[in-house]
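Researcher: Go.
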Amino acid sequence: MGLKGGETVNVDVARVPESLAHIRAKIRGERLRDAQVMSIVKDVVEHHLSEVETAAFLTALEIHGLSLGENEALCRAMVETGKTVHFNRTPILDKHSIGGLPGDKTSILVVPIVAAAGFTIPKTSSRAVTSTAGTADRIEVLCPVNLAVKEIHEVVEKTNGCLVWGGALELAPADDLFIQIEYPLGIDPLLLPSIMSKKKAIGATDVVIDIPVGSNAKVKT
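Model: Structure:
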């Protein structure tokens, strides 16, 4: 703290975050309003909530689910509490899989093909949520994925596309904090807001969502 001997220090007891009341409301199965959702997400990003408190919130979402309004509110809150990327061109294309299948390499194939066709496709990906490796983990074997915003612009200007880990950019940073807790629990209650917040933050105008279906996928039928 850079203190010198004899200095006076005032210490105040930290207040209980207001968002805890909203988390308890969701545990009881209540539907959250937009302001309540923003309060929770903001406290997660600013590290005002412990991992136990955040885990309680995610577990409540897993048990009770989210309404369409709650999904939208979470998506907007996750975007607004992080950085965004803007490109001086249009359209900005993107593709995302809901995941869950180990070894899925669709994005690694699609992005170069779309970029080679002359379209702009700055693809942000996540690390593993429920499988052994996410797209960012797989592409990292071939090239760096921890690019800064300036580096993304340089790569996209040169090649029309990129494959990067969204967590390195502070795009929807709440999502990566949620994933750190979801992964050991094996749950994914924020599937929709997780995907859409990253797409909005990277500036995508058109998005294709890949939904694998099957006995071992997240969507069974």
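Model: The chain has a mean pLDDT of 90.
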